[in-house]
Design the sequence.
């Protein structure tokens, strides 16, 4: 089973003047920590909502030129046994590179796999096509080769 796991990270950013600047710096900082080992992890701005009224808030909380930015890190985990297994793998892989940054699993979605029957039928069809092409090509090539031998 393959799963898509979304993990929320709280990234601290220092010496910033606005929330937009904090988000840009947090994405850059996170990208530097993850690359090149985890370049397949997608980094997005997190969604924050007011706990009382439900209104959407900016992903960065800014106070005294310091900010805490909510980012969503998304990765695909392959060959897992269950959802909890996928969450542990994602947290471990991302957490090893993002030291001292708290992580929380937001979403785990199973990725549907193609059935074995569809794969085997497409493989045999492509094999049949390639063998018929090679026979046609061999008919064209062989007479030329025989003509060269006769000369």
Sequence:
């Amino acid at each position: 089973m393959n799963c898509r796991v979304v993990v929320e990270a709280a990234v601290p950013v220092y010496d910033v003047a606005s929330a937009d600047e904090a988000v840009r710096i947090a994405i850059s900082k996170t990208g530097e920590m993850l690359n090149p080992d985890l370049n397949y992890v997608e980094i997005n701005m997190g969604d924050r909502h007011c706990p009382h009224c439900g209104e959407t808030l900016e992903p960065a909380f800014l106070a005294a030129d310091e900010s805490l930015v909510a980012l969503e890190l998304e990765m695909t985990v392959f060959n897992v046994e269950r959802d909890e297994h996928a969450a542990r793998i994602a947290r471990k892989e991302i957490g090893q590179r993002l030291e001292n940054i708290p992580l929380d699993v937001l979403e785990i979605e199973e990725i549907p796999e193609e059935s074995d029957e569809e794969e085997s039928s497409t493989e045999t069809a492509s094999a049949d096509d390639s063998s018929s092409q090679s026979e046609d090509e061999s008919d064209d090539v062989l007479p030329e080769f025989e003509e060269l031998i006769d000369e």
DSSP finds three helices and seven strands in the chain. The longest strand covers residues 2-14. Confidence is low (pLDDT under 50) at residues 120-127. Residues 116-150 form the longest helix (35 residues).
